[in-house]
Write the structure tokens for this entry.
Amino acid sequence: VSPIITLTTDFGTRDSYVAEMKGVILGLAPTVRLIDVSHEVEPQQITEGALAVEAAASWFPAGTIHLAVVDPGVGTARRGLVITARGHVFVGPDNGVFTPLLTEADWQAFELTEPQFRLPRVSQTFHGRDVFAPAAAHVALGVPPSRFGRPVTDPVRLGWAQAHRVAGGVAGRVIHVDRFGNLITSIGAGEVQTLTAGGTAAVRVGGRALPLVGTYAELPPAGAGALVGSRQRLEIAVRDGSAAVSLRARVGMPVVLSRTMRPKTLRSRRGSSSRGA
Amino acid sequence: VSPIITLTTDFGTRDSYVAEMKGVILGLAPTVRLIDVSHEVEPQQITEGALAVEAAASWFPAGTIHLAVVDPGVGTARRGLVITARGHVFVGPDNGVFTPLLTEADWQAFELTEPQFRLPRVSQTFHGRDVFAPAAAHVALGVPPSRFGRPVTDPVRLGWAQAHRVAGGVAGRVIHVDRFGNLITSIGAGEVQTLTAGGTAAVRVGGRALPLVGTYAELPPAGAGALVGSRQRLEIAVRDGSAAVSLRARVGMPVVLSRTMRPKTLRSRRGSSSRGA
Amino acid sequence: VSPIITLTTDFGTRDSYVAEMKGVILGLAPTVRLIDVSHEVEPQQITEGALAVEAAASWFPAGTIHLAVVDPGVGTARRGLVITARGHVFVGPDNGVFTPLLTEADWQAFELTEPQFRLPRVSQTFHGRDVFAPAAAHVALGVPPSRFGRPVTDPVRLGWAQAHRVAGGVAGRVIHVDRFGNLITSIGAGEVQTLTAGGTAAVRVGGRALPLVGTYAELPPAGAGALVGSRQRLEIAVRDGSAAVSLRARVGMPVVLSRTMRPKTLRSRRGSSSRGA
């Protein structure tokens, strides 16, 4: 079976930039399968690109190659990287876009310096096509990551919104707003479980207190609530509506999950929900 | 030749949701070919998803698997289905998204209950990834639809805008507005042919009377008219413009096709047209 | 290795039109690999489609088939074409969408008239699906272009924004605005090189004078400048911003590159840039 290369960029789909990258890859590695993750990362928003790569990568089979190009530093001395982590390979600029994959000790990184794995002519403005796409294609052809350049032990890491314990709860932030207006937070499923074990919890966001539920369908019509979503993070949703609109929320907004003794009253309602997925 | 799976969702292309589904599919059925129909179905609009699946499906080769996930009821007791119809296979929630395919007697439906054809851990909010994508992959691997669960004889059907005969004509509604602003109606090509046999016809919509023409190019510049479009439905178009804007039209607006005796005067003009396709 | 077909249209990705074309192609040529260039060409804007095809094509391997359907004349007597040029094959309407490929003497064009290479039933409104997609599939299957119909020696060519010499410089126009707000101009890399050999240059656009730099990173924060971009054309960019917004620029705006004797002062600054690519 031929290798898979996924693509995550901020190039949009109106221009031909993504297709130029794919043409370069197929010219070098003709049997590769190409899968788009997203090309609508907000221009230059490295954190948003990092979250998209992290969310998608774990659902692909081991050995998948993930190309991530959100690259405001193109044309500067910022490095290019090939990283192996979690059984996958990641290719892109060394600007923090791979931060979420560097949390454990299982990674290795190499600088992309070998000229033989680039296009013969490298532009100053489009390393996605001229450096990173050919590198990903060469990985797909079997070139070991260590052959691309020297090991890198200090890849750039973004300051990352984390969750932290506060009196009676966990505090975090909104880190992403999805298409449905759901708010994805920095509070992980494990923290929710620890906090709620044997009790119940409520979430405070934007001055409102919301119940913690198990699924969208437990919310009353147009009701807002929090739940552990498909990314294994605490999410805030409005049933059949947009939490981002209802709560005037945006990335960075503080969110606090607190333990309560109130019994859950919303448990068994049934109905339609906020993200049909 | 490896099987084709098409994907129709309301997930958008900004988030990683579609890629997560594709990763799951390729992990199970590595040689499958994946084709996007649309991920820009208006969130939660089951009818719009149903029209997209219907419009696309018939152009694919027999045996194609069509995955359709517009799923406001995720997390409730709504069923999941595998349906065979018209020589194709359809996978998705039992909420009416497959209504247009259930018009004849040639279909069979089965409930998606067998745990072995799901991911080991099923979230409450993303059955597209955890239930429907693995089901489609298993169909691609050759699992017969009857192995997914019990037969279903009463799948959910949406109330559907139909055309009906009125004095001297046929009445219907706008069921879709496409990218070009063309209005797709519930009046089918067969009804248009029956009505116009040996005569001519006019269309009334939004208080205006429009000619029935054979192609966009018969319309005068910026002129509005009706024609049988590529979906074999009566469509309303404005040459080099948007009928939706010109006629302030939207989904649900009534449309009446009436027989007239006026000779067609617009037949042989030539020029550019409203949807270059 | 199976052939590649790229697709460039103005159909958008919300409707099922693109998927219908892909279904037709895969029904005829099951092993073809399909790559989207763009489906967000502004409706009916043939020039924009032509620029996208030109920008993408050269990055694909020889023998790639490029399907381009921006077709306001569908349903009129406008011809359909198969063109061989630069080692690639191009399929679409004869309305100028292939103009940039017809600049040298290495092309041959044939009219798409043979009924055996169309769908059995051809609609009046969607030749992308009924005529051009099947033609591309047949090229992929090995049908020689000359078998589709008579040779065409006078394909439609668009009046094209060119660059021309003026006193002390070169004058051109903005021909495209990309997602990042960069302005792509009709002035080519060769003209820039000729003009700047042994000296420096400045660009006038919208009443402002901008420096010519080597990469985005040479610009001061929020600064505007011109450079030779990844399409081998003079581009105008604003660092970490949108030149289209800052300069209130749009397609058609005049741009003049003039030789100056001022030394380059911006050469070695480093920082983030306007299109991370």
